[in-house]
Design goal:
Elements: E1 6-10, E2 13-18, H1 25-32, E3 38-40, H2 41-49, H3 58-74, E4 79-82, H4 88-100, E5 104-110, H5 114-123, H6 131-144, H7 148-151, E6 155-159, H8 162-167, E7 169-173, E8 178-179, E9 186-189, H9 196-205, E10 209-212, E11 218-222, E12 228-231, H10 242-254, E13 258-260, H11 264-273, H12 284-294, H13 296-307, E14 312-315, E15 320-323, H14 337-345, E16 348-352, E17 358-360, H15 363-366, E18 372-375, E19 389-391, E20 401-407, E21 411-416, H16 465-470
Parallel strand pairs: 1-7, 2-4, 2-5, 3-4, 5-6, 8-14, 9-12, 12-13, 15-18, 18-19
Antiparallel strand pairs: 9-20, 10-11, 14-15, 16-17, 20-21
Bound molecules: manganese (II) ion (MN).
């Protein structure tokens, strides 16, 4: 007897059932999903025309269906669309909805033999569907099934027999970014960029004790009170100790003593190690040289580890969000290309400043979310709270300091850089309050983003202008 098909669903997804008429979609949906989770095109036809099979009501019915789906996805609710969905023109607007709400699209295909479909239609004389219609749908589905991943579905499950449909088991899993059950306590560390000396000093100050391998290399750090580190990304590039930093971070992550989110420098390192065309700028050449000195086995471990890094994490019941470049509220706990791009690179205006660096949207100025957001990416002279967000990149590799925040006491612990390892393209951003300079417009990568409307001039005020404006 064949083993049951396991369908592992992310708990925030838009599920399209795809199958010809009489393939058993509604039965399948009712068996595996809650009554509000399933939005059926037949039911919507009924709502707008009093007739669930009224084909002339199709446009109105799907208009209603998409409205309901949109409302549910906005609310963060798993939603299942029970319609034939055999033609790309039916799937495309639903894929667009999933994308607009940063929700993963999933396809469950009921791909049954046409003989089974004809027999079932024959056994249901109440249905007005013709064999010709079923045959057309069957052909469309046979064509569609090969292209679903290409269309944008993140997971595709295909059930090819009545037995397989009957025995399928659906489990729901949390998104990989969802670690709300993890309450810490955490020590959150900003951009390291290969500053090994400062990292080891900082961890010692924070109370961590080091473990070494038989060659005396530091492979783990343990806190006697069970505290754990969160690395905010950009561990690599520019600095001299990339290998030591990576070996420790990888060891701590594997031992459950640290979490790491991906920085834009790790993302570029992955592309370089996969042999893709990248410019060896912004310190990547130093990383590649140091990895080459360590050998291919370690380099492969680094690549595997970096590939597994997530864009962000929701922690501590959703009270804490960590992401390399920060994350606005609408994207927290969601999954899409633009969520990842925001978390790694920030939100850019598409314009460049006088130093040739991309200008960023000051997302933290508009942030009103209840979760604390800790991030790095933009070197600042000192961390300063803004709307429950804090940048912990104090530019260690540029001669600043390496900084950590103790969560939840909000105590900042910093170690000054031993020297300037790299020259910044522009001066580090001064503290936020009372300065005219926008704190968010320095970025250290060369990735271009889609332009948006510029608005950086809003903060082009002389020092003290803000305070003066508040005075009556
Ligand atoms: Mn960065």
């Amino acid at each position: 007897m064949p083993t049951a098909t396991q369908i592992d669903l992310p708990d925030l997804s838009l599920v399209l059932l795809i199958g010809a008429s009489s393939s058993g979609k509604s039965t399948f949906a009712a068996k595996h999903f809650g009554p509000f989770e399933v939005i059926s095109s037949d039911y919507c036809r009924g709502l707008v025309s009093n007739d669930t099979e009224n084909q002339r009501a199709t446009d109105e019915a799907f208009d209603l269906l998409r409205t309901i789906v949109g409302k549910r996805l906005a609310a963060g609710l798993l939603t299942v669309v029970d319609a034939t969905n055999v033609h790309a023109s039916a799937r495309q607007p639903l894929l667009a909805l999933a994308k607009a709400h940063d929700v993963l699209p999933v396809a469950i295909v009921l791909d049954l033999p046409s003989a089974v479909l004809f027999q079932r239609a024959h056994d249901r004389p109440d249905r007005r569907i013709s064999n010709y219609s079923i045959q057309t749908q069957y052909r469309q589905l046979r064509f569609a099934v090969k292209h679903l991943e290409q269309e944008g579905f993140r997971h595709v499950f295909v059930l090819t027999s009545p037995e397989q449909v009957e025995s399928a088991v659906i489990t729901r899993r949390r998104l990989y970014t969802d670690r709300r059950e993890d309450h810490g306590p955490f020590d959150v560390i900003g951009d390291i960029h290969g500053c090994w000396d400062e990292l080891s000093t900082l961890l010692t100050l924070l109370g961590y004790q080091f473990l070494h391998d038989d060659q005396g290399r530091t492979v783990d750090a343990v806190h006697p009170e069970g505290r754990r580190v969160v690395f905010l990304g950009d561990l690599v590039d520019r600095g001299p100790g990339v290998v030591s930093v990576l070996r420790l971070a990888m060891g701590m992550t594997a031992a459950g003593h640290a979490l790491t989110v991906m920085g834009n420098h790790e993302a570029k390192l992955v592309r370089a190690l996969q042999g893709r065309q990248v410019t060896l700028s912004h310190g990547l050449a130093e990383t590649m040289a140091q990895l080459a000195g360590e050998g291919p086995a370690f380099t492969q471990q680094v690549l595997d580890w970096c590939c597994d890094l997530r864009s962000h994490y929701l922690l501590d019941g959703g009270r804490l969000v960590v992401a390399h470049a920060g994350l606005k509220q609408a994207y927290q706990g969601r999954a899409s290309a633009r969520v990842r791009s925001f978390a790694l690179f920030g939100d850019t205006t598409g314009e460049s400043d006088e130093y040739g660096l991309p200008i960023r949207y000051p997302w933290a100025e508009d942030y009103r979310g209840p979760a604390m957001v800790l991030y790095g990416h933009t070197p600042v002279l000192q961390p300063e709270w803004l709307n429950n967000t804090l940048c912990l990149d104090t530019g260690c590799v540029f001669g600043g300091a390496l900084s950590a925040l103790r969560y939840r006491s909000k105590e900042i612990v910093s170690v000054p850089a031993r020297r300037v390892y790299a020259e910044p393209k522009r001066p580090l951003t001064p503290p936020y309050q009372g300065r005219g300079d926008a704190p968010h417009n320095q970025r250290d990568d060369d990735v271009q983003h889609t332009p948006g409307p510029g608005r950086t001039e809003q903060r082009a005020q002389p020092p003290g202008a803000e305070a003066e404006q508040r005075e009556p």
